[in-house]
Request: fold
Amino acid sequence: MTARKERILKSSLELFTENGFHGTSTYGISQHAEVSEGLIFRHFRNKEGLGKAMVEYANEQLSMLYEPILREVDAVIVVRKSLEFPFNLPQALLPYLKLRTKLEWELNLENTDHFAPLRNALINAFTTLGYYQPVQEARVVEMLIEGTLAEVLKDKLADADVLLAYFKTKYAL
Amino acid sequence: MTARKERILKSSLELFTENGFHGTSTYGISQHAEVSEGLIFRHFRNKEGLGKAMVEYANEQLSMLYEPILREVDAVIVVRKSLEFPFNLPQALLPYLKLRTKLEWELNLENTDHFAPLRNALINAFTTLGYYQPVQEARVVEMLIEGTLAEVLKDKLADADVLLAYFKTKYAL
Amino acid sequence: MTARKERILKSSLELFTENGFHGTSTYGISQHAEVSEGLIFRHFRNKEGLGKAMVEYANEQLSMLYEPILREVDAVIVVRKSLEFPFNLPQALLPYLKLRTKLEWELNLENTDHFAPLRNALINAFTTLGYYQPVQEARVVEMLIEGTLAEVLKDKLADADVLLAYFKTKYAL
Amino acid sequence: MTARKERILKSSLELFTENGFHGTSTYGISQHAEVSEGLIFRHFRNKEGLGKAMVEYANEQLSMLYEPILREVDAVIVVRKSLEFPFNLPQALLPYLKLRTKLEWELNLENTDHFAPLRNALINAFTTLGYYQPVQEARVVEMLIEGTLAEVLKDKLADADVLLAYFKTKYAL
DNA sequence: TATGAATGAGCGTTCATTCAT
DNA sequence: AATGAATGAACGCTCATTCAT
Reply:
């Protein structure tokens, strides 16, 4: 990957996140990346190719999102870290998270179930902890996480501290 | 409101929901509405005006979304109806809900807190029911609802029945 | 001539003078005249018709432009009044003069020789006054008048007083 | 400046001069210049930009208009060449002169005082020649020139020879 | 690999004009 | 006489894309 190709990717990340896919022109990207417009097409064939590359790139970055949780063996800590997760997002990954969420809504991306690994970890944890319906409980936590995440990505979450504390008491953490 | 203006609105609803704002052309709308393209601009000034009108129109339709719940006096029923809400959406309103959600993500609409009235109703309900932290509990239900809603709008919710049942047992309904 | 037709004419005068023929839209005229756009076409058939009517209307108004000079019998006074003419324009006629000049340049109007009557009067005057080449002298005065007029219509004439005085001394007035 | 950009400029000169700014479409220009329409906007940003570039371009061409006169040291010759000037226009510059005059009237260009250098030269000449009011005399010549020029640009000047001869006798040339 | 001039389809928009009322 | 909803062609302009260098 050459330096300019990377600059194109970085600029696309920024501009797609800000203005969406259709709201961003290849000319705009080239300007922002200080690169000739033609180069975008040499590297990505067309705009759609750039979009796909962007999403793949973002997914790669995000692939290790839950990794610290998945490595965890203690069931209680798995639950706690899961609940803390949307409140404590790795700053470096936030742009990629925003991009993926935005593009999933704008384009109708066939959304792979990104949450699956974490959900499985939660199911295991709740099974270990003796929950009566661990699968459903995992889903409940999933909803809490994704609901919180949505607010975070929109910069709308005002009561982060008190909310997280309450989440924890709910699960006796 | 003339018949053709209404047809433009209906077509916009459909096409914006399907392909997003930037992904929909005014020509496409005029074709779909069987109307001259110029008429769109006579009625809405420009595409942005049409977008705003659409969002307002959708918001009007959606304003009565929670109304049956808000009228409810029995605290238990308020909670139950709230939890049932995303599983039991009024079919007529679903398109408007999809549109609003999609456009909120694509364009960066400063999103008014649509959930506020329902949240307040839930706070009251949980207060009545003697919950220790009714405000936070309302937020938890909000997350459950919005998380579920997001999956519904993306046609991703596979375990609706079992999930709703579990929600209810959680709140002893 | 109905009141509204007259309002259309007045608005056209103003807007054509300000922004030219092509720079003025029939919609703009209808707004300015507080009249429905359709009415313009009922009265003038099409925009070109309105343009022609405007020019005719202006020409009618301007037909009496030189009239006070033409009535004059004293040769000296004819010359003096002629030279004073662009410095002392009838305010009511100024807009029509601006319009005609502007449209003559914008559209390539086959320009009737508006100046002819005054030129003839000047020829007579200079003949009476014993000028050696009265026709050419009339042409010189014509140039002085039209040159001055052009500056007046563009609001560019800064040295009006001193210039008129000099003109007069030249012709011993 | 690429060849195509120059072709756009040349075509604009021709078409603007013929039909005015608003009367000329960018599509028409592109056809005439045998160039894609988009190229106009790549080079000039928008139609207004093209208009401004045209006027500047014309002004550049016209900047050397009076240059042969300004170089002249003999006062008599300055006056003679000045009077001859509108009768003896460099054919290559005529289109630019037409364009500038036309656009100054159609658009309301704040018209820089193009005549200033020549006027100053005339003032000097008349001073040298011992005229009592050289400034005003220069203004008189200016009016003669601009009046004649206007007729020339409109192809209205029928008595060129006799008129020029008379001008010369007036100034004893 | 990288540029930048150039393209042409299509976009949002304006405009003169028509027509039912 | 007068309105105002509606049209469709054309306009200025943007955009993804190509290609010679």
Q: What stands out?
A: Chain D has two domains: 3-60, 64-170. The radius of gyration of chain D is 19 Å. Residues 2, 4-5, 35-39, 42-43 of chain D lie near DNA strand E (CB under 10 Å from a C1'). Chain D touches chain C at residues 20-23, 101-102, 105-108, 111, 133, 136-137, 139-140, 142-144, 146-148, 150, 154, 156, 159, 162-163, 166-167, 170 (CB under 8 Å).
